[in-house]
Model the fold of this input.
Amino acid sequence: MKIAILGGTGKEGSGLAARWAKAGVDVVIGSRDAARAETAAAELNQLHQGPRLTGASNAAAAAAAERLVVLTVPYSAHKATLTDVKSQLAGKILVDVTVPLDPQNPRRVIMPLEGSATEEAMAILGDSVHVVAALQNVSSGSLKDIDHPIHCDILVCGKDKDAKAEAIALMEKLGVKAYDAGGPESARAVEAMTAVLIGLNIKYKLKHAGLKIWE
Ligand SMILES: NC(=O)c1ccc[n+]([C@@H]2O[C@H](COP(=O)([O-])OP(=O)(O)OC[C@H]3O[C@@H](n4cnc5c(N)ncnc54)[C@H](OP(=O)(O)O)[C@@H]3O)[C@@H](O)[C@H]2O)c1
Done:
């Protein structure tokens, strides 16, 4: 399996890249600057013995992915990044991790008119791309603590059942339990919950507050 992580040079994307590579997934890190992506990949390659990570421009990374492309950019870069890679995403699954946090106060979200970043991605990309939302509630600190398990569950939202099943299989490679949490509109609650978790981290001086589904 070869996946791409657009914005994979950043905090969330590099943590995911390290964990998936450790689990045997081929990862292409994407960046606005291919050289920056190659440097990030080279640094992560020092950490494990799994498949080699590689780096490329966001468009080349999206093109190289077989099926799944993960998006980890700040909300301010969401629309521009998706517009840039739209043609390379055709026929693939976009796993959107973006949270539209209020830049003035990360304990709040400012949702786009479509309802959530996930639904906005669907509007930008159209029917040729399956958009699935996931991982918005997992902190980069938890991902980067690579020798310890991730102590939270993943809520996966989206329109297409088969695309969600493929995304859930990718999540499970992180060693977590992932749930189909409903249609794209469920992403409104999941994205907003990230702001609540950030607020809990601040108020209670926690490192990585997360969600667990009690069964
Ligand atoms: N950090 C967390 O704990 C966490 C947890 C859950 C969800 N998320 C969500 O995941 C996404 C990424 O978060 P992050 O903390 O990883 O962000 P980040 O480190 O600030 O940025 C990630 C990458 O996005 C690219 N980028 C930054 N500004 C950009 C711009 N103006 N235009 C285009 N690309 C830009 C950069 O890559 P290049 O410069 O290489 O292009 C950067 O390395 C956000 O939507 C965030 O809400 C984060």
